[in-house]
Amino acid sequence: MSKIATAKQREVQRIVDALSIAIAQHRLKPGMRLVEAQIVEVLQANRNHVQAALQRMALQHIVTIEPNRGAMVAQPEAREAREVFIARRAIESAIVACITPENMAQYQSEFSAQQQAERVASEQEDRRDIVRELSQFHLLLANVSGNKVLSEILSNLMVRSSLIVALYQRNDIPSCQCAEHAAIITALKAGDSALAQSIMIAHLNELEQQLDLADAAPDQLNLRQALLTS
Ligand SMILES: [Zn+2]
């Protein structure tokens, strides 16, 4: 019995992950309709599992389910966007405060690989890669902190941030800057937690200032295409 439940949970998680990644990489845009039958076909999934995944994502404010219209990718309002950034400042400040120079030494190779990936993505100017790599840095810090509760909260905030960036980013400039990430790494390696926290908060303020929280114009894209392109 519990094995069956676990298999179902894994499958629902697989669908949640596929949709979340597509949202984080801006392949699935805010307001796009999530047609169950198409998800079933493209992800080779069971309809009940797709419904469970969409319901879970609705609870996470990543998907909106409307009676008679079905599910669509959420379109966070400007107020919610500001609240997500307030939450990110609190959570990411706490994450940075948990990280010691010993943690940094332990994850040395992951940080080197991350910085290399950010540089390559920026040089190649592939917006999707840039968005993915720059978000990855924030998730890596959460992982390094070793605090699973903070990590879980941040994972949700990062997907919601992707929706917010897709809706409100003023221009095509990538939302994070590698140099600011490097400064955070340097401060953490030196054990200067207060400095790392203040750079992180300034970095998140900078990201918020790149948003135009006055208007939103969701694009219409094809769901099938968005899920097939990876
Ligand atoms: Zn960043």
Automatic annotation (TrEMBL):
InterPro entries per the UniProt record, alphabetical: GntR_C (IPR011711), TF_FadR/GntR_C (IPR008920), Tscrpt_reg_HTH_GntR (IPR000524), WH-like_DNA-bd_sf (IPR036388), WH_DNA-bd_sf (IPR036390)
Alphabetical list of PROSITE patterns matching this protein: HTH_GNTR
Keywords associated with the record: DNA-binding, Transcription, Transcription regulation
Name by which UniProt lists this protein: GntR family transcriptional regulator
Domain of life: Bacteria
Molecular function (Gene Ontology), one example: DNA-binding transcription factor activity
Alphabetical list of SMART domains matching this protein: FCD (SM00895), HTH_GNTR (SM00345)
